[in-house]
Amino acid sequence: MSAxxxxxxxxxxxxLLWVLAALLGLLALSAGSALLKLGVWNxxxxxxxxxTKTLLVMAVFMHETEARQLTRLVSALGxxxxxxxxxxSLADFLTRSPLPxxx
Amino acid sequence: MNAIDSxxxxxxxxxxxxxxxxxxxxLDHKRIAILYAAGITFxxxxxxxxxxxxxxxxxxxxGALMSAESYNKxxxxxxxxxxxxxxIPSIPTTLGNFLLPLxxxxxxxxFPRLNLTSWYLYIGGGLFTIAALLAGGVDTGWTFYTPFSxxxxxxNVFLVVAGVFITGFSSILTGVNFIVTTHALRTAGxxxxxxxxxxxxxYATSLVMVxxxxxxxxxxxxxxxxxxxxxxxxxxxxxxxxxLFQHLFWFYSHPAVYIMILPxxxxxxxxxxxxxxxxxxxxxxxxxxxxxxxxIGFLVWGxxxxxxxxxxxxxxVFSMLSFVVAVPSAIKVFNWTTTLRKGQISFxxxxxxxxxxxxxxxxxxxxxxxxxxxxxDVPLTDTYFVVAHFHYVMVGGSVxxxxxGIHYWWPKITGRLYSEAWARFAAILMFFGFNLTFFPQYxxxxxxxxxxYHSYLPQFQALNVLSSAxxxxxxxxxxxxxxxLLWSLWRGDLAGNNPWHARGLEWQTSSPPPSENFLxxxxxxxxxxxxxxxx
Amino acid sequence: xxxxxxxEQQYDDAVQQREAATLGMWVFLAxxxxxxxxxxxxxxxxRVLHPTGFAIAxxxxxxxxxxxxxxxxxxSSSLIALxxxxxxxxxRRVASLLMTGTAALxxxxxxxxxxxxxREYREHLIPGLDFMQSGxxxxxxxxxxxxxxxxxGFHSLHVLxxxxxxxxxxxxxxxxxxxxxxxxxxxxxxxYWHLVDIVWIFVYPLIYLIGRSG
Lengths: 103, 535, 214
Prior knowledge:
Chain A is mostly helical. Chain A has helices at residues 3-8, 13-34, 41-61, 63-66, 69-93. In chain A, helix 2 runs antiparallel to helix 3. Chain B is 67% helix and 0% strand. In chain B, helix 8 packs parallel to helix 10. The two termini of chain B are 25 Å apart. Chain C is built from 6 helices and 2 strands; from the N terminus they run H-H-H-H-E-E-H-H. Chain C has helices at residues 14-49, 51-58, 63-88, 92-122, 138-175, 184-208; strands spanning 125-126, 130-131. Chain C has a two-stranded antiparallel ribbon with strand order 1-2. In chain C, helix 1 packs parallel to helix 6 (184-208). Chain C starts with 13 loop residues before the first helix and ends in a 6-residue tail after the last helix. The model of chain C has no long low-confidence stretch (mean pLDDT 93). Chains in contact: A-B, A-C, B-C. At the A-C interface, helix 2, helix 3, helix 4 and helix 5 of A face helix 1, helix 3 and helix 6 of C.
């Protein structure tokens, strides 16, 4: 690897710190919005914040090694498989019709 | 040339270091494969002993041989050992470990120390499970359904769960190793679509191992926690749901059966190509099929739960997906059969095993489709029909392929040729014994005999006696290879590099191979170049 | 420029070895997602079945401590990312200090969590052993707390492992075992630590932020 290529892989400190600021800001957003009565939007906002934080951590903090297409696919697969587990299980739990006792 | 002539071994991986310590600290994937083979064989016969007891008990309808509780412990032990300590590791850790680096032209796997660690985890888990047996066994069935396993069973659930948990990590680490090896260590010129189908099979299997086994690990941990604390998430008293356990358990355990069958399919492809002297028909479809099985196999687990209390809607979804997953398997069966057409077929022992696989897997797979239809599953579930189905695919399928592979690559691994006459006899005996054992069980299930019962109604006795008789023949069929294969180590003819005149990089090195696998870089061509001369 | 130790015999060169190690780590991380995923799946299903009980239960958790713990882990992630950057620039002392800082924050996380557990013990919120809640939702509150201890317990175990490994590596960095020519192990350890952080990123709202606006 050439020195130039290696140098290009060094993340600027500034970027790391901005991402940290963004992460803490998102944390404040989720904590703050949780104190407000937003109904179904509470869990939606919280989940969206979690996903955004995760993407920031993966894209910036983990970037150097995540850069290859293959590793991106691998990390995506983990989440996709988890989604399959949760999704198809919910397909059962959400569609059950309760059988009331006959007495 | 067949006296005790060890010159073939000089310079091979078997010659380097004879002490026990050399073997137990080896980093050579070929030695690790043999270490695994020893464990696999041991556990196979241990599980087989349990099967023997089961079949002996079922000779009479009153279950006089053992109590109901002992019977429960016996079939549990049979299932646990056979699933986790034999079937799942068998082909990947023995043939996979030995052949993967050779087939891709590499010197070893990506992480040799991790490979050895995997073996120790396998053995460690096995010791826990044997400890559970010695402590009195477990009676929950290999499926550990809650709330029986978490609350009501008085048996050594924790020990067995711990054993399987530990062995699960062996699976995961092996999967990681094989995936990285296939991506990173292919030799120059070995592109993905030049890889032998066995490599594709091991790769697809590794994907499943890596994505499914962690789910099992945590689910087992949850059983242990609930059992220990007396409370947990599967407890209906808290509003938990026993079905939650089943969803989590089968999310792993259904793909687990694809861990068992995919490597077998890889072996069969290699053997058929060699003994038909042709490339496998539809190579690309074969690779895509295996990947499709690996992926779609994760979406069908609910078909184990049709009568458990799952919603009708979910049952329909899982049923439809179960039909879909049969398609790539069917494609493979068609392709193997088409490969045979206009080929020069010879019937050496490995080919007998491979052909047996195709027929028995077909039958087992078709009965799987029957069970995938909820309306048919309702009367057939928890009967011997299910038992017959999965034994057809796991034993008639995976075990036959495993033995076929052992025979096919025996000359490569040991440098010796086994007795072809005895091998063919054993294969045929096994085929006959297998069908006599398990075909009656389809009929028994259809007639309503429930599984996991230590006694049964008298009208089922005739078929049960047939089944047990078949089991004795099958047992003989399994014992014979142990004898003549071991005999060949001492008295077998020297094999030479390529006794089958096969294609594939593993046949371009000596038998047994040297420690570093290749003394000269192997010649890489299209897979199954049987129309071209041997390199 | 090599980034790792002596090349093992199965590899042709250092680049190949490094890429293999990296891929292996990412595959392992995927397994961790599924390992924790079981707990997330269980949580999701139980919460769908018992939304009110879970909201009541969540109000018993310490939101302030949970939020601070989240912030601590996020900062620790940035510190280790800075440490990896520093080692690539051969700034060994800086890297060692940053890694020690990461570990210290990890320990702070565990200590804070310990205080949470202590408080829950005092409030009789230990399912099975010491659980005193009443009312129609008590069973589902107990269910929530089963999940709470399982999830945070497994997570804390991972934090502890991470802290230990990072401290050992920080010491080795200070002794000169790693540098701009050799840092793959540190990169991969950082990946593990980021995963531990990501798991907590999802755990935090699920445990601490339900039903807070009541």
